[in-house]
């Protein structure tokens, strides 16, 4: 039951604000969060997203969270949604539906109290509410924690209840000494903050600065440890999957400890990045407590226990990859003791490398009993050495991907796999556009680029053919027409391709478009775009006319349904009939336009009408000034 097609930068269209909340930020227990495993079971996993004012020791505690299996019947687990960029937890204010109730599209399931307001959680699919995992009044429920289970068939409701109750009983009997030890070791390995001795403080977690963000990089800290913080001060700059954004302080105080230093990569949303206090006198106490906690964690190295615990467990490894076999032979490892993470229990090279790294092993020396090599062996060894030297001489450099490039790669692959691309191409005359640009510069001292005028031409064509200004709704399975013409402009930056949005482009003059595009492009290159300046958009333009590219096909940027690829202008000779009716050769500048469209939205008729409108606007360019 997907929560979003996130066209709004903060919350989905299915959530309505009831009333603003005056509740102050509260403490969150450092607890376990339950995630759905590969076999469908809810499993406890460590969660260190601590935020809120803490004035007493933090203890692990869950309320009414049970285990269940999904192997026998189809169902869906609803997790606590992130309803705002700063939300890491929420309270279940009230359940509007009871267990067993039928759910229709648009029904309100429950009311959730966030750090900003009380919002309604609306159903986007129909079914039945089989089990409520988190009841009314539950406080500080972390984002992502399961809160309910739904099923499609009413007959499966009893199966869910039986499975939840049955497996919860099994879990109550399951803990053993070994399980406790394993859980403690996991907690020790993931916990780096001991809050038991800390004065009143607040732990700041990595915020969710965009709907698609699940991790970020600390680009720069603008405040140092010990600095006073005012409301609105910029604490640090965070590189997200879209841009580098500033993290503002919402309260005053002092920055006592930076947990995630400058340059830290892939910090999960909710993971602690800093600690603040209200009084300057508490800064040293926080620093000392944190330092001793870190030292204690380092000193708690695994100690050899009884023989029964030291005994290595055997793993069922069905297959071993060739690269893994070579490493096992080289280091003299036992394959049965290694954990296989590949498909069908395949032992991969990365599994062996992880074991080697954790045990700090070195290659096993060659056996001294080996016989002296023959002349053929000498030749083979020499040949092998030469090949090794050739491999070592091949110089290469690993180029790390930024968060932006990782997301671009993922989204473009999804677009090509999941969106049926329709390509339409046409050549248009560029001479009228170039003539208009020259007149604007010479007569009115208005300096605009070719791309600025193209944006205006496309915006006018979208207004003429509103069916082209649309997108495909996965939830509804139908085409949704957009009310405004918001054009995304592709801008190349050092960190990757950004697409800032020119909103209501059809209502703006060419000069206004030019100045706004320059401002947005500068922000994109500096990584200073705000979420509302790059999220959304109804149509994209990618212009490579400044390069020797005659034409190309661009990839659609979901959830949009269309992108226009603009090539360079080329002079061509074509026949023209003059006033005397005689055909004569003439030189004209032509531009290739290639439309990549979602075939679910664009059929031949809509695509042809849009290209016809584009061609008409290019031929009579001056009417755009009206």
UniProtKB/TrEMBL annotation:
GO terms for cellular component: mitochondrion; pyruvate dehydrogenase complex. It comes from the Eukaryota. Keywords: Acyltransferase, Lipoyl, Transferase, Transit peptide. SUPFAM superfamilies: CoA-dependent acyltransferases, Peripheral subunit-binding domain of 2-oxo acid dehydrogenase complex, Single hybrid motif. Residues 319-356 form the Peripheral subunit-binding (PSBD) domain. Its EC number is 2.3.1.12. InterPro entries: 2-oxoA_DH_lipoyl-BS, 2-oxoacid_DH_actylTfrase, Biotin_lipoyl, CAT-like_dom_sf, E2/Pdx1, E3-bd_dom_sf, LAT1, PSBD. Its cofactor is (R)-lipoate. Coiled coil: none annotated. Residues 158-200, 288-316, 363-395 are annotated as: Disordered. Its main location: mitochondrion. GO terms for biological process: pyruvate decarboxylation to acetyl-CoA. Residues 363-385 have a biased composition (Low complexity). The pyruvate dehydrogenase complex catalyzes the overall conversion of pyruvate to acetyl-CoA and CO(2). This is Acetyltransferase component of pyruvate dehydrogenase complex.
């Amino acid at each position: 039951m997907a929560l979003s097609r996130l066209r709004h930068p903060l919350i989905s269209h299915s959530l309505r604000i009831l009333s603003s909340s005056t509740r102050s930020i509260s403490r969150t227990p450092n607890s376990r969060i339950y995630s759905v495993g590969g076999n469908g079971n809810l499993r406890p996993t460590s969660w260190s997203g601590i935020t809120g004012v803490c004035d007493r020791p933090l203890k692990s505690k869950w309320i009414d969270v049970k285990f269940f299996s999904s192997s026998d019947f189809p169902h869906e687990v609803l997790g606590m949604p992130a309803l705002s960029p700063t939300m890491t937890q929420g309270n279940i204010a009230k359940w509007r539906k009871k267990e067993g109730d039928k759910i229709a599209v648009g029904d309100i399931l429950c009311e959730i109290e966030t750090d900003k307001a009380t919002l309604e959680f609306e159903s986007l699919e129909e079914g039945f509410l089989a089990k409520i995992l988190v009841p009314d009044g539950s406080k500080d429920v972390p984002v992502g924690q399961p809160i309910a289970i739904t099923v499609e068939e009413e007959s499966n409701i009893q199966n869910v209840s039986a499975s939840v109750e049955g497996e919860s009983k099994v879990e109550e009997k399951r803990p053993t000494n070994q399980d406790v030890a394993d859980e403690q070791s996991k907690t020790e390995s993931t916990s780096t903050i001991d809050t038991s001795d800390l004065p009143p403080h607040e732990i700041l977690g990595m915020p969710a600065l965009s709907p698609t963000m699940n991790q970020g990089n600390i680009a720069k800290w603008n405040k140092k440890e010990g600095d006073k913080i005012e409301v609105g001060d910029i604490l640090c700059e965070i590189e997200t999957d879209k841009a580098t954004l500033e993290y503002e302080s919402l309260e005053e105080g002092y920055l006592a400890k930076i947990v995630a230093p400058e340059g830290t990569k892939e910090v999960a949303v909710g993971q602690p990045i800093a600690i603040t206090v209200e009084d300057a006198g508490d800064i040293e106490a926080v620093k000392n407590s944190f330092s001793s906690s870190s030292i204690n964690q380092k000193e708690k190295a695994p100690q050899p226990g009884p023989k029964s615990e030291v005994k290595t467990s055997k793993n069922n490894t069905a297959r071993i990859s060739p690269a893994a076999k070579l490493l096992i032979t080289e280091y003299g490892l036992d394959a049965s003791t290694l954990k296989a993470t590949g498909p069908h229990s395949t032992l991969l090279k990365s599994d062996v490398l992880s074991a080697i790294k954790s045990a700090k092993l070195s290659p096993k020396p060659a056996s001294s009993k080996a016989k002296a090599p023959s002349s053929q062996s000498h030749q083979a060894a020499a040949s092998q050495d030469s090949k090794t030297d050739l491999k070592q001489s091949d110089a290469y450099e690993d180029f790390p991907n930024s968060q932006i490039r990782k997301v671009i790669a993922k989204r473009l692959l999804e677009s090509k796999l999941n969106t049926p691309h329709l390509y339409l191409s046409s050549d248009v005359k560029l001479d009228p556009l170039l003539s208009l640009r020259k007149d604007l510069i010479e007569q009115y001292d208005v300096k605009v680029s070719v791309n600025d005028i193209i944006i205006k031409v496309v915006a006018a064509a979208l207004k003429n053919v509103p069916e082209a200004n649309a997108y495909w709704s996965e939830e509804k399975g139908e085409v949704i027409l957009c009310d405004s013409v918001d054009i995304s402009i592709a801008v190349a930056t050092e960190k990757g391709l950004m697409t800032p949005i020119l909103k209501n482009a059809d209502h703006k003059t060419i000069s206004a478009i030019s100045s706004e595009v320059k401002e947005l492009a500068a922000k994109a290159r500096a990584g200073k775009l705000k979420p509302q300046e790059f999220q959304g958009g109804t149509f994209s333009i990618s212009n490579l006319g400044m390069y020797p590219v005659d034409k190309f096909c661009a990839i659609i940027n979901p959830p949009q349904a269309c992108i226009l690829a603009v090539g360079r202008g080329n002079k061509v000779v074509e026949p023209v009939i003059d006033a005397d009716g005689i055909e004569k050769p003439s030189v004209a500048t032509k531009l290739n336009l290639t439309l990549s469209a979602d075939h679910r939205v664009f059929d031949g008729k809509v695509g042809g009408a849009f290209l016809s409108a584009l061609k008409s606007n290019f031929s009579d360019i001056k009417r755009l000034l009206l």
